[in-house]
Amino acid sequence: MQYQHRFVDGQRAAWPLGKVVCVGRNYAEHAKELNNPVPTSPLLFMKPATSAVALKAPIHLPLNQGPCHFETEIAVLIGETIRQASVETIAPKVAGYGIGLDLTLRQLQDQLKAKGYPWEMAKAFDGACPLSAFVPAQAIVHPEHLGLSTHINGELRQCGFVSEMITPLFELIAFISQHFTLQAGDVVMTGTPAGVGALNPGDQLSLSLLVRNADNSTTTLAQFNASVEN
């Protein structure tokens, strides 16, 4: 079934998915855990629309391709065209915020990187981008306080906030718009915090979109469940 954007109330978004623009190594601790240098500017790559699936559908791991790692990220749904934009103009053009998984064939990625080749076969395969439903942007007063958490089989594996990003949310989208025009229906994946690892058949995932409050407590804006099938 072809992927279709939806909001958390079940309503379909007005636009089809165009492209998914991703950033690598946007959390310093994640770069360190993979022994990668921290980039001095955003490291961008793309996933095609054919890589997207609904997060609520079962995750099917590619066969005979080595370990498939989860990388949980805040996903930003674009609602208007953004081209060569300034940071100050980004917020009104965002339609929603959700959770995305950047599924990665890690062994294959390492082999491609060692040869200086692009990563697409490890990052852009069919089903490589499970996306949640989106919380409408107008419901989130302070997107700069957003965060995420990943529990697998009840164990906390990842937790990170926009404040920990090397290139924060709106700065990242503005940077992308200097190189690629973003259109309504596109998604920006904003990077993953430390704690990534391999998925296994039978794993149960609980992924949360969080917001950090003024007293440093956190509130769960939305929680999404997923499962890994054989």
| CATH topology name | Fumarylacetoacetate hydrolase, domain 2
Total count of domains: 1
Biggest sheet descriptor: 6 strands, mixed
Q: What level of helicity do the residues show?
A: 10-25%
Cα Rg: 16 Å
The CATH superfamily name is Fumarylacetoacetase-like, C-terminal domain
Number of helices: 4
- N- and C-termini, Cα separation: 19 Å
> What's the overall geometry?
globular
Tell me how many strands there are: 16
Textual characterization of the structure:
The radius of gyration is 16 Å and the shape is globular. A six-stranded mixed sheet has the order 2-1-13-6-7-10, with no helix packed on it. It has a five-stranded mixed sheet with strand order 4-16-15-11-12, with no helix packed on it. A three-stranded antiparallel sheet has the order 8-5-14. The protein is mainly beta and 230 residues long. It contains four helices and 16 strands. The relative contact order is 0.25. The protein has a single domain (19-229), classed as Fumarylacetoacetate hydrolase, domain 2, CATH 3.90.850.10.
Secondary structure elements and pairings:
Elements: E1 19-24, H1 28-33, E2 43-48, E3 52-54, E4 59-60, E5 68-70, E6 72-78, E7 94-101, E8 104-105, H2 106-114, H3 120-123, E9 129-131, E10 135-136, E11 146-152, E12 155-161, H4 169-177, E13 187-189, E14 197-198, E15 204-212, E16 218-229
Parallel strand pairs: 1-13, 3-9, 4-16
Antiparallel strand pairs: 1-2, 5-8, 5-14, 6-7, 6-13, 7-10, 11-12, 11-15, 15-16
